[in-house]
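User: Reviewer 2 asked us to show a designed sequence for the structure in our supplementary figure. I'm pasting the structure tokens here. Could you produce the per-position amino acids so we can include them in the response letter?
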């Protein structure tokens, strides 16, 4: 059974509550800056995921990223059984590592949701709520919620989708207040992601779009990006086993689609590294910078 694209019966009270929530998010999101930037001030920055750099849960990722010439690092929040970035001392270590490298903490990621699914494990909902506080402590505006492996979503499993929607609805007001966006990364189509976003009904829940994931599923990446106008918080750049620009994905077409939806923000490399992350991501960074310069 497919989830309806919009809820058919919404009371005036619910509509008012949503409008207040949007207004509160807009006020809190003054810190979001470029995520909501006007076209004239659009920009791109190129980072990489700490796990792709071989430094998951390790502040040393910033020195590796610096040697590659990146602008920042997407940082994984925690693994099961650890507090990791929920620990203020570890947060301080990351802030110090970013400062010393001259790079930015671009965004956070809840990679462990692949093993501890939001659709079924109470710990995942707790971590998602805590991740918003970690974002605030580290001065970042996006946290990726991953839905792969054990956490993969199937729109036909309506009970699981209902649970994910319920949790996102519970957490979204806190994200709105703190100016944080929760980005859903999954194998779902743009259409199915929009169904979930519309059910949640919050500007603080968007899609974390991975061009490689969609290509693996045989989807038209540029068409999907356009369909998600205003609903994408950040991008992953990968292309299966290929170096960027040497495989299946036309990144110039991706750039054109981003221009059409006026996207401004981070692009995180999560690509294959047949020769190691430093060698390969140096080449990937140079390639992406030619298409996505710092000033959009």
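Assistant: Here is a per-position design you can include in the supplement:
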């Amino acid at each position: 059974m497919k989830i309806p694209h919009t809820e058919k019966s919404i009371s005036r009270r619910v509509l008012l509550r949503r409008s207040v929530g949007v207004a509160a998010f807009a006020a809190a999101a003054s810190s979001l800056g470029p995520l909501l930037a006007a076209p004239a001030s659009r920009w791109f920055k190129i980072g990489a995921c700490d796990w792709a750099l071989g430094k998951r849960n390790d502040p040393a990722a910033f020195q590796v990223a610096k040697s590659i010439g990146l602008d920042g690092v997407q940082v994984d929040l925690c693994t099961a059984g650890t507090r990791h970035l929920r620990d203020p001392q570890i947060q301080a270590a990351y802030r110090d590592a970013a400062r010393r490298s001259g790079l930015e903490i671009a965004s956070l990621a809840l990679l462990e949701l692949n093993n501890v699914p939001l659709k079924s494990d109470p710990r995942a909902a707790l971590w998602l709520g805590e991740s918003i506080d970690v974002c605030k402590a580290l001065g970042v505006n996006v946290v990726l919620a991953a839905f792969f492996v054990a956490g993969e979503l199937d729109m036909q499993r309506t009970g699981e989708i209902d649970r994910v929607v319920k949790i996102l609805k519970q957490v979204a007001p806190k994200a709105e207040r703190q100016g944080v966006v929760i980005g859903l990364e999954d194998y779902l189509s743009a259409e199915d992601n929009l169904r979930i976003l519309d059910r949640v009904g919050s500007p603080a829940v968007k899609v974390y779009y991975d061009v490689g994931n969609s290509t693996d599923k045989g989807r038209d990446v540029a068409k999907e990006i356009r369909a998600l106008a205003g609903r994408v918080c950040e991008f992953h750049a990968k292309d299966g086993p290929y170096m960027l620009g040497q495989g299946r994905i036309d990144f110039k077409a991706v750039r054109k689609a981003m221009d059409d939806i006026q996207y401004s923000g981070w692009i995180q490399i999560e690509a294959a590294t047949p020769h190691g992350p430093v060698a390969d991501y140096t080449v990937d960074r140079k390639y992406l910078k030619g298409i996505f310069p710092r000033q959009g």
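For the response letter, you might also mention the following. The two ends are 41 Å apart (CA to CA). Strands lie at 44-49, 72-76, 104-110, 142-146, 181-185, 205-210, 232-237, 265-269.
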